[in-house]
Design brief:
Oligomer: heterodimer
Strand order of the largest sheet of chain B: 6-5-4-7-8
Number of domains of chain A: 1
Number of helices of chain B: 1
Shape of chain A: globular
Helix content of chain B: under 10%
Order of helices and strands of chain B: HEEEEEEEE
CATH topology of the largest domain in chain B: OB fold (Dihydrolipoamide Acetyltransferase, E2P)
Largest sheet of chain B: 5 strands, antiparallel
Strand order of the largest sheet of chain A: 3-2-4-7-1-8-11-10-9
Strand content of chain A: 15-25%
Number of strands of chain B: 8
Chain lengths: 385, 123
């Protein structure tokens, strides 16, 4: 038996919750986190005092697990507060799976909260300035992505229209999701004619800045089967990281998802054709294109052409970011956990108007920093085991 | 690991810049260059680093223009002839095509010397 297969199906998401998604002045970051955590714990049919492991990362809290445990009154036997940016929560899933499987804990809470929009409307970043970037007024994080997009266009003939198609598809899904913050019509021309922020990315190529909290509860599979919700099983996870500063990324068109993806697929024992839903961290439109390529859903360089003509929009060939994504649903600073919440809702058949006909296996791909950290996770229903 | 000098590579680099020199590190044994300056060549780990003057010749690897209410400026990634990449900005133009040749110069940014680039004449 391969060691990497040992976690497959051993643990499951038993509860999910989100809270105050959008523009909700009057709530602090920890209050939004707390609200989501309470919902996820209740959804799992558990009590707050049942939680004995906490995983969190934050731009608002230097010691996130200390803040969360104090706030909720938890005395955990295991915590994980490592921060690899927006992909932290996919990493926390892998860590929680290990800790649960080893019996170091019994009920793991993975949680996040932010009041980024109402607290000022700008993307808060705890990231320390990189001295070699500082004289040039590098705008973190957008310039990492605009430089990657420019390079992708140069190397592969990707166009601004192709980038815009990603934003239009996301909006199509958001229009089916009552929780999405930005709804209403959006055309390719709307994206192209919106304000240019950092060439070649316009305002509509960029994710939202919203408030919001999110949380999931994970337990071992045997326990999940006795809890009220349909278990969402962890099938596989893989991580990779190559750089901190965009100057150190060897090729701006190839991300470490080329490594995290195969690792997750190997553990999950599934093929690309098995994936019913792709949740890709779309902080900018170029992300979706890069991750479709790097995770193997289209050849390198073809991502722009792949998304054309509604391939990833509602009714298209491949369901991607069915909540509306970071581009149109929500992006409260770090978005990675919300990829998993949407996947769980789809796999539990609770996604309302946007519910996929077949939703047995979902891939959630987190991204952090400037295309820096990449963590891929794969989840499935009972049918996938 | 050999004894490090009195000041670290970041400060040494900045001291050279203050003297008007754009210096980068190179391993004596393998000839590999590294930028930004650090205590060893990444991955392979050579610590026998010496400072050599950069050619200053490079090409644009990628470039973006930040546009705001107070005007616009470009941020570029420049591949130096020595095989290392650095962040910088290209002076005197709004932007340049990817692949365009550029030449380094030292200028004051917020009262501190920094390496910026200018387009190569005739290109």
């Amino acid at each position: 038996m391969r060691m990497t297969k040992s976690l497959r199906g051993k643990v499951a998401i038993a509860g999910v919750g989100s809270f105050n998604v959008g523009n909700v002045p009057g709530f602090s970051a920890i209050e939004n986190l707390g609200g989501a955590a309470l919902r996820a714990i209740a959804d799992a049919g558990l009590k707050v005092s049942d939680i004995d492991a906490v995983f969190s990362a934050s731009s608002a809290h230097a010691f996130p697990t200390l803040s969360v445990c104090e706030y909720l009154g938890l005395k955990p036997t295991f915590v994980g507060g490592a921060n690899v940016g927006g992909a932290s929560f996919e990493m926390h899933v892998v860590e929680a799976a290990l800790a649960l499987e080893q019996g170091l804990c019994n009920a793991a809470l993975i949680c996040y909260g932010s009041n980024q929009r109402s607290a000022g409307g700008r993307l808060v970043s705890m990231a320390e300035p990189q001295w070699q970037e500082q004289p040039y007024r590098f705008r973190m994080p957008i310039n990492g992505y605009s430089l990657a997009a420019a390079r992708h266009m140069h190397q592969y003939g990707t166009t601004r229209e192709m980038l815009a198609e990603v934003a239009v598809a996301a909006r199509g899904w958001a229009n089916l999701n009552p929780e999405a913050f930005e709804r209403g019509p959006l055309t390719i021309d709307d994206v192209l004619s919106s304000r240019m922020v950092a060439d070649p990315l316009t305002l509509r190529d960029c994710c939202l800045v919203t408030d919001g909290g999110g949380a999931i509860v994970m337990v071992r599979a045997d326990r999940a089967r006795d809890l009220p919700q349909k278990p969402v099983y962890f099938l596989g996870g893989g991580m990779a990281q190559w750089h901190r500063s965009i100057t150190e990324m060897p090729d701006l068109t190839i991300t470490a998802a080329t490594e995290s993806g195969p690792r997750a697929f190997e553990m999950a024992g599934v093929k690309h054709d098995d994936i019913d839903l792709l949740m890709l961290y779309d902080a900018f439109t170029i992300n979706t294109i890069l991750f479709l390529e790097d995770l193997g859903f289209c050849p390198k360089g073809e991502g722009g052409r792949f998304v054309q003509n509604g391939t990833i929009a509602p009714g298209g060939k491949l369901a991607v970011n069915t909540n509306g994504g970071g581009l149109s649903c929500m992006h409260p600073g770090m978005y990675g956990l919300f990829l998993i919440i949407e996947a769980a809702r789809q796999l539990r058949n609770e996604a309302g108007e946007r519910q996929l006909k077949k939703a047995d296996i979902a891939l959630c791909h987190g991204n952090g920093g400037v295309l820096s950290s990449q963590v891929t996770t794969i989840f499935g229903t009972e049918n996938a085991l | 690991m050999p004894q490090l000098p009195e000041i670290g590579p970041e400060q040494q680099f900045k001291n050279y810049l203050a003297e008007g020199k754009f210096m980068i590190q190179r391993s004596r044994s393998t000839g590999k260059y590294v930028f930004y300056p650090r205590v060893a060549i990444p991955h392979s780990g050579e610590t026998d680093l010496e400072w050599v003057e950069a050619s200053g010749r490079g090409t644009i690897y990628s470039i973006t223009v930040n546009r705001g209410k107070n005007g616009s400026y470009n941020v570029a990634l420049v591949d130096l002839e020595e095989g290392v990449r650095m962040m910088s900005t290209v002076e005197g133009v709004e932007t340049l095509p990817i692949g365009a040749p550029v030449k380094a110069k030292i200028t004051l940014v917020d009262d501190a010397p920094a390496v910026v680039f200018v387009p190569v004449e005739g290109e």
